[in-house]
Amino acid sequence: MAQNVSRQLQALPSIFETGCSIGDVAAGLVALMFVYRASVVVYRLFFSPLAKFPGPILAAATSWYEAFFDLWSQNFPDVLSDLHDVYGPIVRVSPTELSIRDAEYYNDLYVLGGKRRTNLIAGNRAGLGMSDAIATTVPHELHQLRRKAVENFFSKQSVTRLESRIHHEARSLDEKLLRYAGTGTIVRLDHAFSCVTGDLAGQFACGENPELLEGSEFNPECIAAMLPVAVLKAINPHVAGFRMFHLLSEGRIEKIKDEISKEKDHDEFHEKTSIFHHILRSDLPESEKDPARLKREAFALLAAGTITTAGTLTTITYFILANPEIEKRLRVELKRVTDCYPNQVPRWTDLEKIPYLTGCIKEGLRIARFMRRNPRISPDTDLKYKQWTIPKNTPVGMSICHMHMDPEVYPEPYKFIPERWIGDVDPRVNRNFVPFVKGSRNCLGLNLAWAEMYVVLGILFRPGGFKMSLDCDESDIVPIHDSDVGIPKADSRGLRVRFD
Ligand code: HEM
User: Fold this and answer.
1) Hey, which family's this protein in (predicted)?
2) How distant, in Å, are the alpha carbons of 2, 212, 485 from that of 226?
């Protein structure tokens, strides 16, 4: 067979009778491609407007430099830190992008819309099914339009009005954990936290509780969401994964549209109100209300609101349980606001007034190491950084973990020390704290995240609550890999907690 093909190829007439064989043409194309690639590299190294910026030659020549670390060891944020040690506060991290490590500059880069327009890199998080979502919208105006329509819903006032949802979820978690109390059972608390934050993200984003917490042994069963609906329906329409899938369905959006059309008057805070309700009631153009776009928005919100908050709760809980002195002090300080539990769930506003709890949450947000460098683009004006002029339309990023792990600002940065946030602190401690980024594209769900963390931790560590001990160590928890959010080692055992 192979011989036949080869004979037929040889028998082909030479191209246009010029004496050129297919082999010659292929070789010519390869040579052309090589010359093209080589001239792109020469341009990037010597003629690009970014050629003057310091950084490794390979990073300036090709984005495969970063891709290599992403694929090989997923530790590019640490590599980047080393690059800044070598090249200084501004580094060219790729042919088209710069990184700055200088906390003084943070507020100049991450600005509000009134100060400067901010674009994103096109294709950011492409392939994740989130295109057209607020978090991935590239042009400034469209992003602001989409964001403004839902911003109020995520305000502190609005989250406070809907706080009963968080209370209900935290109480359910507590009741579920009660069945393990005193049994010596080991529970994956990281899974339990994902269920809680997933349920809440579902309610805030889509107006329906996916009831992940009902999954057996806190198994979010998200994997089921990948199966076709018909198969899931046939297996069991009540599995948690199915409910998550249902939230993301266009049918759900049509149902909300129908509900809204029958509304007599708008109750902003009715039982099921959600981001979907806000968008569908808003005066956004109809194209923005297209079910396919809303489906992608819902997916982005569920992703943004679930893993992040659950990961932070996991980090905080680990460090509290790993340090008996911290646990003891926290429980004592929580007494005055949790005294009435279970009759009354402690309120976010009261929990916020416990500085030690706030210190624990801030330490968790600091150490959880959100690794990406959140690049921003100034489309209209060049940026000035020290002696450097950064041409407009250049993506510039500042890594959150560089801000959070600066040993000058946070001595022993890998240690969990809630006290560093209490009392008369060095102003740089607060200046460097940017877990939610800043500016016109900062985290939309930060109030929801704060409220969830306060209430869940307030209940979990109330005096007289569960007796818990760890069945894992720091290497199972602390993120070392960059997967957009930081994740621990591949064979992590997760947050395994024994209920003694
Ligand atoms: C501890 C919890 C959380 C952390 C640390 C966190 C962190 C962040 C960060 C760093 C960004 C900026 C991303 C970028 O520049 O590419 C972001 C954006 C965003 N977050 Fe969060 N987040 C958390 C929880 C939540 C929650 C609970 C929600 C909502 C359910 C949410 C919704 C969003 C959205 C919609 C954006 C995009 C905002 C925009 O582009 O205007 N996040 N978050």
Assistant:
1) Belongs to the cytochrome P450 family.
2) 41, 15, 22
| Distance between CA atoms of residues 268 and 32, nearest Å | 62
- Which residue lies with its CA nearest to atom 10 of ligand 1? 436
What pLDDT score was predicted for residue 252?
Answer: 75
Q: What is the pLDDT at residue 87?
A: 98
Please give the number of the atom of ligand 1 that sits closest to the Cα of 452.
Answer: 27
The whole-angstrom separation of Cα 283 and Cα 212 is: 33
Q: What is the Cα–Cα distance from 142 to 122, expressed in whole angstroms?
A: 13
How confident is the model at residue 445, as a pLDDT? 96
Q: How far is the CA of 287 from the centre of ligand 1 (A)?
A: 24
**Binding site residues, as ranges?**
443
- Measured in angstroms, how far is the CA atom of residue 318 from the centroid of ligand 1? 23
CA of 388 to the centre of ligand 1 (A): 30
Distance 462 CA to ligand 1 centre (A): 28
Q: Check pocket membership of 445 for ligand 1, CB cut-off 6 A.
A: yes
Nearest to 373 by CA among 404, 410, 411: 404
Decide: residue 30, CB within 10 A, 0-12 exposed, 13-18 middle, 19+ buried: exposed
Is any atom of ligand 1 closer than 6 Å to the C-beta of 134?
yes
Binding residues for heme: 443
Q: Kindly state if the Cβ of 449 falls inside 6 Å of ligand 1.
A: yes
**Ligand 1 centroid distance, CA of 329 (Å):** 31
Residue 305: CB within 6 Å of ligand 1? yes
Give the pLDDT confidence score for residue 265 in this predicted structure.
63
Give the ranges where 268-389 is alpha helix by DSSP (H). Answer: 275-281, 291-322, 324-338, 348-351, 355-367
- pLDDT, residue 351, reads 98
Distance 304 CA to ligand 1 centre (A): 6
Please tell me the distance from the alpha carbon of residue 456 to that of residue 167, in angstroms, as a whole number.
Answer: 8
pLDDT for res 474: 95
Looking at residue 100, its pLDDT comes to 98
Angstrom CA distances, 120 to 46, 374, 377, stand at 26, 9, 6
CATH of 134-369+405-499, one of 2.10.109.10, 3.10.20.70, 3.30.300.20, 1.10.630.10: 1.10.630.10
C-beta of 147 in contact with ligand 1 (< 6 A): yes
Which ligand 1 atom is nearest residue 374's CA?
A: 15
Contact call for residues 356 and 418 (beta carbons, < 8 A):
yes
Q: Which residues of the chain have pLDDT under 70?
A: 1-18, 126-128, 216, 219-250, 264-271, 369
C-alpha 117/C-alpha 112 separation (Å) is 8
